[in-house]
Specification:
With 456 residues, this protein is an alpha/beta fold. Helices cover 28% and strands 22% of the residues. The chain has 11 helices and 18 strands. The chain has an 8-stranded parallel beta barrel. It has a 4-stranded antiparallel beta sheet with strand order 11-18-13-16, with no helix packed on it. α6 links the parallel β2 and β3. It is globular, with a radius of gyration of 25 Å. The two termini are 47 Å apart. 43% of the residues are buried.
């Protein structure tokens, strides 16, 4: 008897005694139940293919939607990329309330929040031992303020995951551009993670500049993260946890692979081509899924002149379908204003967006789980959308699929696609009055496994 068979035998034996003790099934009923258990226990696990996500990447993928908060001196200067020569006193929020940020994000259906703890200007929103350009040098709260600490407290209070953005580009630090800077930046990363972590995600921007651009030591930076937040998913153009999708407009490619070749590439100027970032690579060696980053207004930092650019609910729904609906996570930036509060108009829009999502996906007409490449579902009402999920813990395999509807006794194609990945949302062009919906995987690298199929 193999180890697998022995474990199955033990499970069934234990279950047999439980059934006999807790139920009044007949002997035939018990035999039938055990037969089902034996079939399940001895069925081989689905075939894996290619690189696989880690447990942390799987949990991250399930989050799907979280908030970005760009906040700092740029909030007060009106700039988007500060020069690093700003007076620290410019940073002076009058009513900072990180609990308001977290409550709003949570009520909007978001699953986490990421703060720009240090942007390219080098200004640290915490009192860093590795910089003289921080909240400690400002007159805000007499130099005793700490935005990162306040957000950490708020996230802990509401049991809300927190992430952090720390820019490697520093337009203020005197050691930037020298050999010493890499260790300074690694120390800065470790300081934030030790004092305020652990974090669910570390966000690394690839921007850099100046007369002497350093050769960033990315392995050193990653080690500083993992030593202190071992479960963090690291974002950059090339991961290693998740990747930039190649634009800031809110969309991933209709074909979107969670795989990427990273050898010879790094964040920033040496990143892969935009098309590769946007679509991934079907034969990529590493599991690096996409994250779609987009601001709710035209700018990343709060600006007193851009309220008219606040995205509509329809805009945000389109972004949802082209980000989460194409297998990515969505990080939506909502910038705190000069008070240190999320603007009322932005908060209201988030709630309207949530209401629109809830209404769109309110009525589940049919669903099934853990199926192969061919699924047929009965429906009794007109349907408008189908949502597919691939069981990505076994890899991403599906290359093409079709969706058909049985209308008046005839099958009609109502949608088709290439990749599925974590989630694929396909709205139909019009409401379909069908009696059945059929999904057929027409091309796959290996035996496909649909984790779920749901018709709305």
């Amino acid at each position: 008897m193999s180890n697998f068979e022995f474990r199955a035998y033990c499970i069934i034996s234990k279950t047999k005694h439980h059934i006999m003790r807790k139920t009044r099934l007949s002997t035939e009923g018990i035999i039938a139940s055990l037969a089902l258990l034996l079939t399940a226990a001895c069925s081989p696990a689905p075939q894996t293919y290619g690189p696989l996500p880690t447990e942390d990447q799987l949990k991250w993928a399930d989050m799907e939607y979280y908030m970005f908060c760009h906040f700092g001196p740029n909030t007060f200067s009106g700039l988007q990329w500060g020069l690093g020569d700003e007076d620290p006193d410019i940073f002076n929020p009058s009513e900072l309330d990180c609990e308001q940020w977290v409550r709003t994000a949570k009520e909007a259906g978001m699953k986490g929040i990421i703060l720009t703890a240090k942007h390219h200007d080098g200004f640290c929103l915490w009192p860093s031992a590795y910089s003289d350009h921080t909240v400690a040098q400002s007159s805000w709260l007499d130099g005793k303020g700490d935005v990162v600490k306040e957000l950490r407290k708020a996230c802990d209070k509401y049991d809300f995951p927190m992430g952090v953005y720390i820019s490697p580009w520093d337009r203020n630090h005197p050691s930037y551009g020298t050999d010493e800077y890499n260790q300074v930046f690694a120390n800065t990363i470790a300081e934030v993670h030790q004092n305020y972590g652990p974090f669910f995600e570390q966000w690394f921007d690839g921007a850099n500049g100046g007369a002497h651009v350093p050769a960033y030591d990315w392995p050193l930076f990653h080690k500083a993260v993992y030593d202190n937040s071992p479960h963090a998913v690291i974002f950059s153009d090339v991961g290693p946890g998740c990747r930039w999708i190649g634009n800031e407009s809110g969309w991933a490619g209709e074909t979107n692979w969670c795989r990427l070749d990273v050898e010879g590439f790094e964040p920033g100027k040496n990143a892969p081509a935009t098309k590769i970032l946007n679509e991934g690579q079907p034969d990529g060696a590493e599991w690096i899924p996409g994250e779609v980053d987009v601001p709710i207004r035209a700018d990343w930092f709060y600006n007193t002149t851009n309220e008219s650019t606040l995205k509509s609910v329809d805009d945000l729904m389109d972004i949802w379908f082209s980000s989460v609906g194409r297998g990515c996570s969505l990080i939506l930036n909502v910038a705190p204003d000069q008070r240190g509060l999320l603007p009322q108009a932005d908060s209201i829009r988030l709630m309207e967006f949530k209401a629109a999502r809830d209404a769109y996906f309110a009525k589940k007409l049919a669903s099934c789980r853990n199926k192969g490449g061919n699924v047929t579902l009965k429906v009794k009402e007109p349907c408008k959308c189908i949502v597919l999920q691939e069981d990505i813990k076994y890899g991403q395999k599906i290359k093409a699929f079709t969706v058909e509807a049985l209308v008046a006794g005839e099958w009609q194609k109502v949608a088709e696609g290439t990749t599925v990945g974590h989630k694929r949302i396909l709205p139909f062009d019009a409401s379909v009055d069908a009696s059945k919906i059929r999904v057929t995987v027409t091309d796959s690298f290996a035996e496909p496994m649909l984790k779920s199929v749901t018709v709305y």
